[in-house]
Amino acid sequence: MRFGIVVFPGTWSERDTNHAISGVLGQEAEYIWHGDDKIDHFDAIVLPGGFSYGDFLRCGAIARFSPVMEAVRAFADRGGPVIGICNGFQILCESGLLPGVLMRNDHLEFRCIWTDLKVENSSTMFTSAAKQGQVLHIPMSHGEGNFQADSATIERLEGEGQVVFRYADTNGNVTPEVNPNGSINNIAGIVNGRGNVLGMMPHPEKACEALIGGTDGNVIFSSMIENIVNSLA
Amino acid sequence: MTVSQETLDEIALSRAEYEAVVDRLGREPSQLELGLFGALWSEHCGYKHTKALLRTLPSSSDRMLVAPGAENAGVVDLGDGLAVAMKIESHNHPSAVEPFEGAATGVGGIIRDIFAMGARPIALLNSLRFGQPDGARTRYLLNGVIGGISSYGNCIGIPDVGGEIFFSNAYKGNPLVNAMCVGLIENGRVASASAKNPGDLLLLVGADTGRDGIHGASGLASRTFGEQAELRSAVQVGNPFLEKVLIEACLEALVLPGVVGLQDCGAAGITSAAIEMAERSGMGLRLYVDRVPRRELGMTPYEVMLSESQERMLLAVTPGHEGPVFELFKKWDLDASVIGEFETGSNVSIFDEGILASTTPIVALTDAPEYILSNQKPQWLTTLQNADLSKVPMPDTSPAETLLRMLAAPNIASRFPLYRQYDYHVQTNTVIEPGGDAAVLRLKGSKRGIALSTDCNGRICFLDPNVGTVIAVAESCRNLSVTGAEPVALTDGLNFGNPETPDVQFQLTESIKGMSRAAEAFGIPIVSGNASLYNESAGKAIFPTPIIGSLGLLEDVEKHSTVGFKSEGDVIVLLGSESVWDSTDGLAGSEYLDFVHDRVEGQPRIDLDLEIRVQSVCRAAVRAGLVLSAHDVSDGGIAITIAECSIIGGIGATIDESPAAGGLRWDAAMFGESQSRIVVTVSADRLSDLLALAATEDVPATVMGTVGGDALSFGDMFTTPLATAAEAWKTGFSAATSD
Questions:
Q1: Longest C-alpha distance within chain A, in Å?
Q2: Is residue A203 annotated as part of the catalytic site, yes or no?
Q3: Span B1-41+191-368: which CATH code?
Q4: Is residue B321 annotated as part of the catalytic site, yes or no?
Q5: Multiple choice CATH, A2-232, 3.40.50.880, 3.30.70.141, 3.30.70.100, 3.90.79.10
Q6: What is the pLDDT of residues B540-581, one digit of tens each?
Q7: What pLDDT digit, counting tens, does each position of B330-344 carry?
Q8: Looking at A59, A144, A205, A208, which residue is catalytic?
Q9: Do B310 and B236 touch, CB atoms closer than 8 A?
C-alpha cells in the first residue's frame, strides 16, 4: 500500500516517518508538498511532526489554510485513513477534522520523554494489532500537547470510544503523576466519529526499532497496513 | 588625519593596529574600510592571539577529508561512503547580554557551519558554564540559555544528544555557551566555500539584512565588557523556522548544476563570509551592497556589510545556472539575490548604487596581525599547586550523609530535568540518549555508529592548564571508549580570559601544548576549532576552559555498552587502578574539595600512557561482549560512579572494602578524582576472561564487589538505601536551580 506523507515548510518528522513505514515496514511512501492538492492516489495520509510554518501564530494555525489540507479534508470525508502525529494532531484540530485543542503543556516546558500509552480502544483501524488495555512504550516531544475540549465534547469522546490512547504507567494505571502535559483525562490520542482520522501527540515513528529504544510504534502503522490492505483486497 | 579613540574602541582595534592598516593600504582607511578591518582583524575572525599556537596542533590523519581552517568545519571519513563534519562554536558574550537569543543564535550559527559543508546536521551538543545556581542572575541566565537552546534546536529537528553543564563562580559574570554540531555527508559530496572561476556569481539567500548584530564579532566577542545593556543591540535574533527551511533549500541547491560553493554568513556577516570566500578561491570580488535585501530603509553600506542578521548563506554559482537556483529558493519561499561576482585579481571592491565605495586588497584584510604570547607561570599558581591536601579537614558530615550531599550537588546531580527540554529522539538515530558518558547514534544504512562527547573540567585546567587540557582530551575520549567507540577526531572550543594579560597568555600557551601532546598520544587529529577570548568580568578571568568535542566510531553499533548496572551477581571491576579506593592526591581540583570545602587547589596528574591502555582494554572488552556496563570515574570520584551505575541500572551494589580500610581518608578514598579509571561489570563466569584481557595490555584490574540488592554498601563502613541515593541524585538539579 502507499502512504502519502505531507511536508509543510518546518516539518521535520517526514524522514523519520518514511523510514518507519518504508524502511522498517516495507510499504511505499511518498512526500506530498504543502502546495499540492492531488492526493487521491494514496491509500493513507500522514501529517507528521515538526513546526509547520514555524508554528507562528499558533501550532497548526497556518498549516490548516494550505492547499494540501483542502485535499486532506476531502480525502477524510471520503473515508480515507489519516493519521496526524504531534504537529499533525495540532493541524487536525485546527482544521476541525478532530475536536478539541492542544494547549501549552501545563508546566510550560517542552518535554522530550518516553511515555507509556494505554490502548483504550483496540477496535480502531489504527490499533487493531494491539490488545485492549495494552501499554505501548512510545516517546513524545512537544511543548503544546495539553489536550482540552469542552465538557460535552469530552463526554462524547469518552462515551463513543474515541479516546484511543491515554498516558499511563508501565502497568497501565492512568494517574495524574504520569500525565506529562496536563491533558484532560490523560488523553494522548483520539479518533473522529467515523474512525478514519487519528490524532496523537507521541511519535510512533520514533519507536520503530529495538536499537533506538523499542518497536511499539509499529503496532499503529501495522494496524493501518493490515486494515487497509484487507479493505483493498 | 587621526582617528578618534572612540572609533577605535567601537571596532576594537588598537592604535598600533590602526597604523598597520594605514601602512598596508598606503592611505587612511574610509569609515567603511575601517569597519571591514575591525571585523576581520577581530579576535573572533582573525585569531590574532591564537593563530601561532593553533598551528602546532596535530591535524593529520588518514581520515581527514578537509583540513582545519580550510573550510567552515573539519570533515572526517568514517568509511562506507560516509563522512562527518564537526565543529564547536561559542556564543558566550551574546548569551551574557541576552541569554535566550544569544544561546539560540549560537545553535543556529554552528548548524550553518555544518550544512555549509554539504552535511545534513544529525546531532547537537552543548557545553555550558554558569556561576553557582543560587544567585538570581545566574538563574535568569540559565533559564534563558536553556530556553534558547530548546526553542531553536527543537524547532529545527536536530536532536540535542549530549553535552555538559558545570557551575562555578569563576563563570558568574561571564557564562560559557558552546554548541557543537555534527553533520553527515553521504557519497563523499563535501561542499566547499569557494568559487570555481572568475565570473561566478555570488548569491545571498535566506533572511533579509537588518541592523542587528552590528559589531558582534569585534565588539562582543573580542573584548571584555562591563556595561552589558549597552551592547544588547549587538545580539542577533534567531528564527529557527527560517533556518530549517534554509537547510533543506541549501542541501537541495548543492546538487544543482553550476552551484559550486556554499558559505555560512556568521560573525561579521557578509564582510567575513564573502571576503573569506574570495580569499579561498584565490580571486577578487565585486560586491554590490545596494542589491542586498534589507529589513529596513536607510541602511548604510557600513551597516549592510557588518550586519550579523541570522539565517543567511552565500552561494557561488556559475553564470547561466542561476535560474533553477532562484526557482528552488522560491519553492521554499526564500529570497535569493545576486549581490556580487568573483573576478580575476586580488581586491574586494564594494559598490553602492553604481559608485565604487571602497577597493581593498583582500590579503590586507584577511591576514590579521599575529601576536606571540609570553609563557610565564604565575607564582600564585605554584602556591595553589603545592597546597598540602592532607591538611584539608574532614567533613562535618558522616560518610553516608556526605555521599547524599555530593549526589545532590549541582555539578553531579542528574541532568534529566534539563535535557528532557531538548528533543533527543528526532531523526531516529539515538542509541544512547543524554545521561550516558557519551551519546551514541546509529548511521542508517550502515552497521556503524558514532559516539559523541564534550568535556572540560575548567577547575583542573585552572590548576594546571597543560595537564588539565591533557585530562580534558583524555576524559572526552574515555567517555567514547566506555561505550565501545574508538576515538577518531577532536574539535576544540577555547574559552579563555583577556589574552593581553600574562596569566591568560600562560594559560593559553600551556593549554595548547597539553592538547597537542594528548591528541598526539591518542593518534587523533583536531579537525576544527573556535576561540573565544576576553571572557572575564570585573577584571577576573574565567577558568581556562578548552572544551574538547570528540567523535568516536563503532564498527558495529549493536555492540555498545551503557552506564547502568544490569543483573544480580555481576562482578564490579575497576580498570586502571590496583586499589579500590583513591588517595589524598586525587583530591586535587576535585568536585568534593570545591563543593564541600570551597577549595580549588592541588596538582592534577595523569599518566597518558596508562590512560590509553585502559581505554583500549575497555573498548576491546565491550567489543568482545565481556562487559555488561561501563562508566568512567570523573566528577565525585568512585563513590559517585558506583552510585550512578546503581541508580541508572535500578539495582544496588556492594563494595567489599571499606573506604577507611588501612587508615585511608574515607573522603579522599570515595571522592578523589584520580584519572584513568573505569568501572565495568562482568558476569561471574567471564571474570577471568576480563582479567586476562586487562593483563595483556598491562592494565590493572581490581575486583571491587558485586551488583545486587536494593542498597549501596561500602564495606563495613555504611549502607545507604538505593532509593535514598536515587532521590538525592534525581532531585538535586531542580532543587539547586529553583526556589
A1: 48
A2: yes
A3: 3.90.650.10
A4: no
A5: 3.40.50.880
A6: 999 999 999 999 999 999 999 999 999 999 999 999 999 999
A7: 999 999 999 999 999
A8: A205
A9: yes
